Amino acid sequence: MSSSLVQYVVVRGDLLRLMNWSMGAVIAQACHASTAALHIYRDDANARAYTADIDRMHKVVLEANDEASVRELSTTLLNSSIDHKLWIEQPENYATCLATKPYPKQDIQKYFKNFKLFK
After folding, report:
1. CA-CA distances (angstroms) from residue 55 to 2, 11, 17, 29, 59?
2. In sequence order, what are the beta bridge partners of 97?
3. 8 forms bridges with which residues in the sheet?
4. Would you put residue 110 in left (φ > 0), alpha (ψ -120 to 50) or beta?
5. What is the spatial distance between Cα 111 and Cα 94, in angstroms, rounded to a whole number?
6. If we measure between CA atoms, which residue out of 23, 54, 47, 52 comes closest to residue 99?
7. pTM of the model
8. How many Cβ atoms from other residues are within 10 Å of residue 90's Cβ?
9. What is residue 1's predicted lDDT score, i.e. its pLDDT?
10. Residue 64: beta bridge partners?
11. CA-CA distance, 110 to 113, in Å (whole number)?
């Protein structure tokens, strides 16, 4: 079942381009959000199936332009009852990344069609 599940991760691209964060720091944000989402929803059937076959986990890592677009996506997902974690970096207190719990791709891909692959 885990091969049909996907976890979407959306990272702010402006952290690299405009705020001069290192690539490692940006990748860490994606790791934080992904790990947090899997932990928060660890009792969910999809999360259990996704992590039961660790070698076949599938993630799609996308780029958001800025904090406003990550927060807007989070609001859209909340309003659509899509479980996710909006990672708020501390002590700065701003949103850097968002990760969904694992879902069948066909159930949630429509929410991410306006984002491009992170490069």
Report:
1. 10, 23, 32, 22, 12
2. 11, 87
3. 60
4. alpha
5. 22
6. 47
7. 0.94
8. 7
9. 46
10. 12
11. 5
How far apart (Å, rounded) are the C-alpha atoms in residues 17 and 9?
Answer: 19
Amino acid letter, 47 = A
- Pairing between β-strand 5-12 and β-strand 103-104 as defined by DSSP bridges: antiparallel
Write out the H or E segment, with its range, that includes residue 100.
strand 94-100
Q: Is the dihedral of CA 42, 95, 80, 100 positive or negative?
A: negative
**Residue 14 has which token pair?**
């402006």
Q: Which amino acid would we find at residue 99?
A: A
10-residue averages of pLDDT along the chain (119 residues): 82 95 96 98 97 94 98 98 97 96 97 96
Using alpha carbons, select from 108, 98, 96 the residue that is nearest to residue 34: 98
In the structure encoding, which two tokens stand for residue 2, read together?
């885990």
How far from the centroid of its chain's Cα atoms is residue 119's Cα?
15
Query: Would you state the structure tokens that stand for residue 70, as one six-digit string?
Result: 């990550």
CB 62 within 8 A of CB 70: no
